[in-house]
Amino acid sequence: RRQRQMCIRDRSGSPLWSVTLFKNGVFYKTVDTITMQPLLFPVTDDGTYTLSVVTDNTGCTGTVAGSAIIAYYPPASSSMSGNAEICQGDSAAIEIFLEGTAPWSLTYQRDLANDVTVTGINVSPYVFYAKENGSYSVSQVSDVNCQGISSGTFNLIVHSLPAISITGLNSAYNVEGNPVQLNAIPAGGLFSGCLLYTSPSP
């Protein structure tokens, strides 16, 4: 938990002061021999803090007023994972899972650069679509209350499209002639279109 500071100011009296604090109506602690004001001290527990008693070096008891409300919010967090392979021109859906209290804001990166910042996210997971090769991660995340922590990466591989050419064709053919054999580079693909057929193996 993060520490928060409470501030107590004595408007009169002489040092050394002594104050007694309550938390949620129950005794919390007494701080003695206070020489300076305001008094600042760290707290890590949530609750409503109030002053019960204040005295100065004369032993006189003074009046107290005010309260401090400390609220604890778990830090926001984001996580992502996974791998995908796509063809050039396609896209991959990448999910970022969020914890905390909406709305969230986050910044995601590709290869620790190319920052993209998104704000006002109200639903988890947040989904975006990527087309570029690289490792995607979140560099910053926060919710409505606190800055958070992020973990995980998503790795995307984008395969280039093959370059295909048809070889061995003449510039013209007799429409009444024999069928023409089609050959393509690279081998292994399938031709499509009308008036095509596959000859049986010899």
Layout: helices, strands, pairs:
Elements: E1 4-8, E2 17-23, E3 26-34, E4 39-43, E5 47-55, E6 67-70, E7 77-79, E8 83-87, E9 92-99, E10 104-110, E11 113-121, E12 126-130, E13 134-142, E14 149-151, E15 153-159, E16 165-167, E17 183-185
Parallel strand pairs: 7-14, 8-15
Antiparallel strand pairs: 1-4, 2-3, 2-5, 5-6, 7-9, 9-12, 10-11, 10-13, 13-15, 16-17
List keywords for this structure.
0% helix; 202 residues; 5-stranded mixed β-sheet; mainly beta; rod-shaped; 4-stranded antiparallel β-sheet
Compose a concise summary of this entry.
The chain has 202 residues and is an all-beta fold. It has strands spanning 4-8, 17-23, 26-34, 39-43, 47-55, 67-70, 77-79, 83-87, 92-99, 104-110, 113-121, 126-130, 134-142, 149-151, 153-159, 165-167, 183-185.
What share of residues is helical?
A: under 10%
Q: Rg, please? A: 35 Å
Put simply, the count of helices is 0
Number of strands: 17
Most strands sheet: 5 strands, mixed
Widest sheet, order of strands: 8-15-13-10-11
Measured by DSSP, the beta-strand proportion falls in over 45%
Mean pLDDT: 85
Structural account:
The protein has 202 residues and is an all-beta fold. The protein has no helices and 17 strands. The protein has strands spanning 4-8, 17-23, 26-34, 39-43, 47-55, 67-70, 77-79, 83-87, 92-99, 104-110, 113-121, 126-130, 134-142, 149-151, 153-159, 165-167, 183-185. A five-stranded mixed beta sheet has the order 8-15-13-10-11, with no helix packed on it. It is rod-shaped. The mean pLDDT is 85.
